[in-house]
Predict the structure.
Amino acid sequence: MKTLIVNGRLLIGGNIVSNKDVLIEGNKIRAIGNGLYGDNIIDAGGNYVSPGFVDIHIHGSSGFDTMDGTFEAINTISKSVAMHGTTSFLPTTMTEDKGKIKNAIKNVFDNKDRVEGAEILGVHMEGPFINPKQKGAQDDKFILKPTVENFTEICGEYVNIVKLVTIAPEVDGALELIRYLKEKNIVASVGHTDSTYDDVALGYKAGITHATHVFNAMKGFHHREVGTVGAVFDLDISAEVIADGIHSVFPAIRALIRLKGKEKVNLVTDAMMAANLRDGLYQLGGQDVYVKDGAARLKSGVLAGSTLTLDKAIKNILSNTDLSLPESVALASYNSAKVIGVDDRKGLIKEGYDADIVIFDENIEIKKTIVGGKIVYEKK
């Protein structure tokens, strides 16, 4: 079956192209051009045809969480995020009992190919190898020493599904684990950390290539000790940011983009189960979370994930920075794909790439989401 997307404004190579069609064959983009033939026609109606969004840090959505450890949970999350243009994601675990973390990872391993919405690319382990001083909404009673032994005990035979691990490099044992992760081609990301510049530099030398929700749960910037944030600014690592205006104000996000360059910053949601739902009482990592006006907090007031979606994050970047639409979309697609090494098949409208495509209007309202050549969401 060949599907042809016509009458769209394509986001290609940093430009908006209006005079070409996209041919999908199977799960791949086969051609971009004119005079193409398809058995099935999708009329984009003059809307934008964009690479699908990639979320490498998301705990839950629509009442379910990765840590639930069930097919229903990850399938609901998969379908929910597809409504907002996400075509692939990393279900993200929390710092909880190591048996529960292992069960969540096993569940993703067993069921990733069964989900009916966005594709699952692997697992992001956010903890338990973090610094209790910067625990955020993580439960400190489950924090573990960052050792290869603890990591392999949790992951076991499912280690190949783990794509990213958030880790505090200053904690004893962390550097050895970071080197091990590098050997396994698993991204080591500095986060939930009280690290100084020198601590992060040692972690970078050992293999850190990314930073988790920059500005949040890390040592801040000071002109005499620039801390974790200063190290993120200075070192050649990528940086994810939660662009909701709650976790980080937009002047900080603009500064991050200017200092790192737009190629090194990517958008994540860090969403929890309240995403797509009303304000109220929810759970994250076994703790009560109170959502009011879209902000998710523990009873103590500490932020506990978000209710953000990637379409909203892109809108926020467009409204609060000088980035163009193609540049803003790249932060939520190609840049995220680069972080976890799938940029050879994800994040671009390009021949040979996976047919993960989103059609949206001027307001970034999602009209259709296509994953692997199949329509998984269509606005009624």
Remarks:
- The chain has two domains: 2-49+350-378, 53-340.
